[in-house]
Every structure is written in structure tokens, then in C-alpha cells.
Design brief:
The complex is a heterodimer of chains A (about 110) and B (about 450).
Chain A (H helix, E strand, L loop, with lengths): L16 E2 L7 E6 L2 E6 L4 H6 L6 E2 L6 E2 L12 E4 L4 E3 L10 E3 L8
Parallel strand pairs in A: 2-8
Antiparallel strand pairs in A: 2-3, 4-5, 6-7, 6-8
Chain B lengths: L5 E4 L3 H12 L5 E3 L21 H5 L3 H16 L4 E3 L2 E7 L2 E6 L2 E6 L2 E4 L3 E3 L12 E3 H11 L1 E2 L4 E6 L1 H13 L3 E6 L3 H6 L1 H4 L3 H14 L3 E2 L3 E8 L2 E8 L5 E5 L2 E6 L1 E3 L2 H5 L4 E4 L4 E4 L6 E3 L2 E3 L8 H19 L8 H20 L4 H5 L6 E3 L4 E2 H11 L3 H8 L12 H12 L21 H5 L3
Parallel strand pairs in B: 1-2, 1-7, 2-3, 7-22, 9-17, 11-12, 11-17, 12-13
Antiparallel strand pairs in B: 4-5, 5-6, 8-18, 14-15, 15-16, 19-20, 21-22, 23-24
Helix pairs in contact in B: 1-3, 1-10, 4-5, 5-8, 10-11, 13-14, 13-15
The chains are: A mainly beta (about 110), B alpha/beta (about 450).
Chain lengths: ~110, ~450
């Protein structure tokens, strides 16, 4: 990695509330450079929104986005990974060691 | 004779019953599905490692869910079905489907195609619905069912249709906090449709019981005025009650939805004809009662007629039976299913009339309301484009980009049609024409095709 520090969003609390099924194995991933915890079986969307209020910055407006349809139809939850390829957060299971971004990298050539 | 290649797209109730019917007749169909596990959206299964029993996940429908899951799993385990999970069909032409999954792109040839693509939530824009924390009702149900989470600490559900009250009771039961359930359908219209709803008395009674459980949270005949939000998300919903009083409900999440919109992109690419259906207030593909759409293509489930899960099971069996019959193979007797289909359609059309699309609310949207969530195109911009370029949906798309974003108009097409119709003085949204589907129907990395062998 380039060693770039990614600015973490100011909020530290998540958007969603875990109601049930909280006894699953923990999964560690990195969000905007900070290590975070999720649970095995979480989608990337669940994993991020358990830790942060939004997934990404909208390209065509000032607001941030936190997903919308959760069934792969609206395409509102595509986010970047540090190594490049994007993924659709609602339909991708979170995995140990994922390095995810809520913002676009600024140091790409 | 080589066995005909029959491919089914979608492993919800329609796709599963279609596959089962074909297997019974001795065929070995391929089933391509976006989900990791078969079941579709309404009978969606959580990933491995989740432990809630079916009765908790599916309530009174648990028996049907388990029967479908088991039927499918048994056939896959026995090698009677080729199951292609976690793959999206993004294009089709000349008897070949183009599917994309984690491993890249695949071409899958077919002689007969059964499309069981289901539906998405039907959405009407509400001012500020692009704020983080606004979800479709279906999204909130998926979050609860497949992830065990609520999408906020204090939730307002708004819109209309069976899912509104169902989701509210499911979330309450799971321990979520529901601040209000705002139904844009008035009580008078709901009562007027009661005769049609009574053809399925158990469903009608269940709905009334759910409504009673919501108590004073439920409000009928509401007009949604807007969503308030800060940078970090939703803070309140503003609405007008049936008595004309302005109200405001604090919340950090909003679920929106007005019943369902058929997922029809692949039917469009397959060359199916479409007609505007005034009851369901949307364009639907044309097929005969069995689901025959011509040219070796069959349609089943909510992607054809919005009958719900029970109707999808029936339609899946019928489409497979039609396919078998057209192949000259013996199939099941369909008389009872055709009768069921009629009864379920009468009920479903009653539902559509009781919980209608909020055309008046859409036509009254302020100009600065974001209509297209993908690219932030406003209601005002759509009105201007229609006034300048003409009241036709594809022209407004070409000139103003409404419907050209990455969801391909799935969530803005119907509202845009209302605005365009109003601009052109046309009687109904269907008069503005239908947005044509374009491949790929899901965003597809170029890599998927570069790496293909």
C-alpha cells in the first residue's frame, strides 16, 4: 500500500441496530484506514453501517449515501476498496482483512 | 434427440416451481440466480451461521418457505438442476445469456428461457429521499430477515401496500422502535376494494390483525411532505394527516415503498411486448395465461403479474408446463392452477386498488425534489426537459438523463412518467411511453468480458 492516511469520517457510531443473531464469529476489516469489527455473515453494507453512518459520498450531490434497496437493484452502494476494484456492498459478504473506503482515494495517478 | 436446454432466471417461488416441474418431466434445467441461496426476496434465507428458525423468519408463511427451499435443495443435491448462484444475467441475444459473477462473465446458451425475475419496491420520490438513512421497505425487510438488523434506532415507515404493515409488525416483534406507519392510501379506498380482498379471507383477516397491532402508530390517508436530514442522515418526516393537520415525526431512518414494480429488463431484451396496466400503474410484459411470451420465452411470477409469492408458485408451474407442451413433452394438468391464478389475480388487483400509486403526491412534488437518485436529477429538470423536448419518456431520458443512471430508471421511471404526462397534458402516465431496457441491465466491469475465455 502507499501508506496514505485516509481521513475517517467524524462520526464513530453506526447507523444500524443489531437486533438478533449477535453471537456470530467476529470479522476484522479496515474502514478508511481504521480497524473495525463485523460479524461473520454480514454483508459489507451491514459491516460498514454497524460502524459508520454512511457508505460513500454521492457523485452528483452534496449528500452521503448509505444504500437504498439492499437487493442489488438500485446500485447505490458501490464502494471502493483500497486496492482498486469497487464492490456492491449489499451483495458482497464481508471478509477478514478487507480494506474498504467510504471515499475515493485521492492519490491515484 | 439431444435434451433441450431450458434456462430459468431467478430462484424465487416462481423459478423454483418452474424448475421442479421441468425436472418432473425429465429435463435438467439451469437456474441462474443473484442470491447465494435459492428462495428469492420474500423467502430469502440468511447466510450460513444464522440460527433463527423459519417460524421466526417467515411467520405464518414458514411452511411455504421451507417447502420451497427444500424442494430446490433436494433437486440440486441430486444433480437434477444446474444451479448458478450469485450470478446476474446482464444481457441476452440470439439464444445466449450473458451472466456475470465473482469469477467473471459466462455465456449460457438456451433453447427455451423462463424469466422469473421478480420485482423491486415501487418507489415514489419524497423530498430529500436521497438522504442517508432512507431505504426501500423491501430493503428494511431484507436487513431484518437476512442480517438480523434494523436500519435505524427510530424508524418511520411510509408508502402503501401489504409490505407496509407486514414490515412494521415484523420489526416491532424483533424489538425495533417504530415511530409511525404512514399510509398514503385512504381508508375509503381500502374499504371499497374489500370485496376483491375477501376472495382470500385468511390474508384479509391477517392484515386487519396486523393493523390492529400497530395501534396509534398507523395513519391512513397521509400526504408525505418531505424528509428532514443533516449531513449524517435523516432526522424527521414531515407529513399531513387525513384531517389536513401538518405533522412531524422524529426518526433516524425512513422506509419507503408503494407495493411492487415488476423487474422487466430481461423480458424487454428478450423482445417481449409490453402494455401499460392502469391498475398496477406500470408497464408489464404481455404473455398468455400460461406465461408464453413468444419466441421460446416464458414469464412467471412478479416480473409478469404482481400476484405475490403464492401467485408466483402457480405461475412458475404454468410457465414450465407451457414450455414442456411447446417442446412436445408431457406435462402436468394445469386446470386447477389456472383457476388459482384467476382467484389470486382478482385478489392482487384488489390490493392494487386499495393501496394505489400516489400520483397526486408525485405530480405535486416541488421542483427541487431529487427525482433520480442515481444522478440527482430534479423534478423541475424533468418538467423543463419535457416542456422543451416533448412529453415522451425516452426523449426526456435522452435529453435530461432521467432513467439513464446506473439503476436504469428502476426507481424513477414511474414518477418521471407522471411528471412528463402532467407536463404534456396527457391523461395517464402510460401515455408518455415506456423506457427501453439497455444491456447490461446491471453495472458490469469491463474485466468480466476481457477475462472471458
Amino acid at each position: 500500500m502507499s501508506g496514505t492516511v485516509f481521513a475517517a469520517p467524524p462520526e464513530t457510531s453506526g447507523r444500524l441496530v443489531r437486533l438478533v443473531e449477535t453471537g456470530r464469529e467476529p470479522v476484522r476489516f479496515v474502514l478508511d484506514g481504521v480497524e473495525r469489527m463485523a460479524l461473520a455473515g454480514d454483508t459489507v453494507l451491514t459491516a460498514i453501517l454497524a460502524n459508520a453512518p454512511a457508505l460513500r459520498q454521492a457523485e452528483f450531490g452534496p449528500e452521503r449515501r448509505a444504500g437504498f434497496c439492499l437487493m442489488g437493484a438500485c446500485q447505490d452502494c458501490w464502494i471502493w476498496q483500497e486496492q482498486g476494484p469497487r464492490l456492491r456492498a449489499c451483495s458482497t459478504p464481508v471478509a477478514d482483512g478487507m480494506r474498504l473506503l467510504t471515499r475515493t482515494r485521492e492519490d491515484w495517478p | 434427440m439431444t435434451e433441450p436446454r431450458v434456462v430459468i432466471v431467478g430462484a424465487g417461488p416462481a423459478g423454483i416451481r418452474a424448475a421442479e416441474t421441468l425436472v418432473t418431466a425429465g429435463l435438467r434445467p439451469t437456474v441462474i440466480d443473484e442470491g447465494a441461496r435459492a428462495g428469492g426476496q420474500i423467502y430469502r434465507r440468511p447466510p450460513d451461521g444464522f440460527t433463527r428458525p423459519p417460524a421466526t423468519l417467515y411467520g405464518s408463511q414458514a411452511g411455504k418457505a421451507v417447502a420451497l427451499h427444500t424442494a430446490f435443495d433436494v433437486l440440486v443435491a441430486a444433480g437434477r438442476i444446474v444451479h448458478v448462484p450469485r450470478h446476474s444475467v446482464v444481457a441476452l441475444a440470439d439464444g445466449v445469456l450473458h451472466a456475470v459473477g465473482d469469477g467473471g462473465g459466462h455465456r449460457i446458451g438456451y433453447d427455451r428461457l423462463i424469466l422469473a425475475t421478480g420485482a423491486t419496491d415501487r418507489l415514489a420520490p419524497v423530498p430529500n429521499w436521497q438522504a442517508p438513512g432512507v431505504y426501500s421497505l423491501g430493503a428494511m425487510q431484507i436487513a431484518l430477515k437476512a442480517q438480523g438488523v434494523a436500519m435505524g434506532r427510530r424508524i418511520v415507515l411510509a408508502g402503501s401496500g401489504p409490505l407496509l404493515t407486514l414490515l412494521a409488525t415484523q420489526l416491532l416483534k424483533a424489538g425495533a422502535q417504530i415511530a409511525a406507519v404512514l399510509d398514503t392510501a385512504g381508508l375509503r379506498g381500502q374499504i371499497a376494494a374489500f370485496a376483491d380482498l375477501a376472495v382470500r379471507p385468511s390474508f384479509a383477516l391477517q392484515a386487519l390483525a396486523m393493523r390492529a397491532r400497530l395501534g396509534r402508530r398507523y395513519h391512513a390517508g397521509v400526504v408525505l411532505e418531505g424528509i428532514e436530514a443533516t449531513d449524517s442522515g435523516v432526522t424527521a418526516v414531515r407529513w399531513t394527516d387525513a384531517g389536513g393537520q401538518e405533522r412531524r415525526t422524529d426518526c433516524d431512518a425512513v422506509g419507503l415503498g408503494w407495493h411492487l414494480k415488476a423487474e422487466t429488463q430481461l423480458a424487454d431484451l428478450a423482445g417481449c411486448r409490453f402494455a401499460y396496466d392502469a391498475t398496477w400503474a406500470q408497464w408489464l410484459p404481455c404473455a398468455d395465461r400460461m406465461g408464453r411470451a413468444g419466441d421460446g420465452v416464458y414469464l412467471a411470477g412478479d416480473g409478469l403479474r404482481l400476484l405475490g409469492a403464492d401467485g408466483a408458485e402457480v405461475a412458475g408451474r404454468l410457465a414450465a408446463a407451457a414450455c414442456l407442451s411447446d417442446l412436445g413433452l408431457p406435462g402436468p394438468d394445469v386446470a386447477a392452477d389456472l383457476k388459482r391464478l384467476d382467484r389470486l389475480e382478482r385478489f392482487a388487483r384488489g390490493i392494487a386498488r386499495a393501496f394505489p400509486w400516489p400520483a397526486d403526491q408525485v405530480r405535486a412534488l416541488p421542483d427541487d425534489t431529487v427525482l433520480c437518485r442515481c444522478e440527482g436529477i430534479t423534478a423541475g429538470a424533468v418538467r423543463e426537459t419535457a416542456a422543451y423536448g416533448g412529453a415522451e419518456a425516452n426523449r426526456v431520458k435522452s435529453l435530461g438523463r432521467a432513467g439513464m443512471g446506473r439503476c436504469q430508471g428502476r426507481y424513477c421511471q414511474l414518477a418521471a412518467a407522471d411528471l412528463i404526462a402532467a407536463s404534456g397534458g396527457l391523461a395517464q402516465a402510460g401515455d408518455v411511453g415506456r423506457l427501453r431496457a439497455q444491456a447490461p441491465v446491471r453495472p458490469t466491469p469491463v474485466r468480466a468480458w476481457l477475462e472471458e475465455g
